[in-house]
């Protein structure tokens, strides 16, 4: 799933972020909730793998100790350029680096905390990546991996599937290779101390357009598959208008794994 079509720029990623941010029932931003699980203290060295557009640090800008040295990395130079602009006015010690999480080059025992925010499922050789993360953590360092479960957005997905069936299309999202449901066993092969913490939330969606944009953002994410072809957009809008009575409650099934070296 890690391909240039999806991640050369931030536009498709931002369409997905918009849906979750706009219609969240939990008034505390999830990124602020994740930050509560970071280690406390001064002069920490922190790494984020797959920083996206830098939204995590923008959300927590007023809580970041000024003495932290924070390295933000992404596979995509386009993402990193967006992140630099997003964080340009925040007075923190940010460094930026293009990194493929399948080939992490940092030296052992370098970081006090490492974050992988909804990205480990992209990694083909996850066990190597997790082992590398363990190696570059300092003793007693903390690794936080956020991720979704199989029931995430299930009501929305069911509407998409029913619509596509009318077109003879039997597409279904495949279960993530790293998720709330299967991630702990993968992490425990490397980290003896790993726990799952669930995040309580749901979405209340009362607009059609963000749902459309969400699914359009997945077009060509894998094997050049168009999940929602452009020629179906108008019909899918009408279908959603008939199915959604003013608003729709949508399950959120996500959380974090917190691992200590």
Shape: globular
Termini separation comes to: 29 Å
Spatial order of strands in the largest sheet: 3-2-1-4-5-9-6
- How big is the Rg? 19 Å
User: Total number of β-strand segments?
Assistant: 9
Q: How big a fraction of the residues is strand?
A: 15-25%
Please, how many helices? Answer: 10
Average pLDDT value? 92
Q: Can you tell me the residue ranges where pLDDT is under 50 for at least 5 consecutive residues?
A: 1-9
Order of helices and strands: HHHEHEHEEHEHHEEHHEE
Q: Approximately how much helix is present in the residues? A: 25-40%
Question: How would you describe what is shown here?
Answer:
With about 260 residues, the chain is α/β, with parallel strands linked by helices. The protein is about 35% helix and about 20% strand. Strands 3-2-1-4-5-9-6 form a 7-stranded mixed β-sheet. A two-stranded antiparallel ribbon has the order 7-8. Helix 2 (about 10-25) runs antiparallel to helix 9 (about 210-215). It is globular, with a radius of gyration of 19 Å.
